[in-house]
Specification:
It comes from Neolewinella lacunae. The chain is α+β, with helices and mostly antiparallel strands. The protein has a single domain, classed as Protein Transport Mog1p, Chain A, CATH 3.40.1000. Helices cover 27% and strands 41% of the residues. The chain has 4 helices and 9 strands, in the order H-H-E-E-E-E-E-H-E-E-E-E-H. Strands 3-4-5-9-8-7-6 form a 7-stranded antiparallel β-sheet, with helices on both faces. Strand 8 and strand 9 form a beta hairpin. The longest helix has 15 residues. The protein is globular.
Length: 159
């Protein structure tokens, strides 16, 4: 009984500690033509590019915080959220190094790629708003631990 109580107390304390995403301040992306808010470290640098008028590419990086995020915004091919997510799942699963889906939510997922014995993690989170699709994903030029990927995933989730 005592062990059970200590276990429950430990879980409660761990839950109250707060994720890094909750500690990061809110970042309004409206000035980068993304009408959404996320959480990001204060030291994050934002770079926005317009790709031939078809797609908006916004990167948000803070190397000190192991935060490296990319947002791709374009006109959505459909308003069916399940289909938008399914398309992202298919893209990820088509990678020859794809290993497994770690966690899945209605609007996104965290996954694992494996090269030999080394695991690499990533995520996709999709927002459909108006006629636009916003795909949040980890940047490809950085490798993060599962905990760092989970923190970025939590930072972009919309309420």
């Amino acid at each position: 009984m005592r062990t059970l109580i200590l276990f429950c107390l430990g879980c409660c304390l761990a839950g109250c500690a707060g994720e890094p995403a909750q500690q990061w301040p809110e970042l309004d992306l409206t000035r980068y033509n993304i009408p959404l808010k996320i959480h990001a470290p204060d030291s994050a640098k934002v770079v926005a590019k317009n790709l031939s008028g078809i797609m908006q590419d916004v990167t948000i990086k803070s190397p000190a915080d192991k935060f490296s995020l990319q947002i791709l915004a374009s006109q959505a091919p459909t308003n069916d959220m399940a289909r938008l997510k399914s398309e992202q799942l298919e893209l990820v699963r088509d990678n020859r190094y794809f290993s497994s889906i770690i966690r899945e939510d209605p609007n996104g997922f965290v996954f694992q790629n494996r090269i030999d014995t080394t695991a690499y993690y990533g995520f996709r989170y999709i927002v459909y708003q108006g006629d636009q699709e916003y795909v949040f994903q980890n940047s490809f030029n950085a490798t993060q631990s599962l905990a760092e990927i989970e923190a970025m995933y939590a930072a972009v989730k919309q309420k």
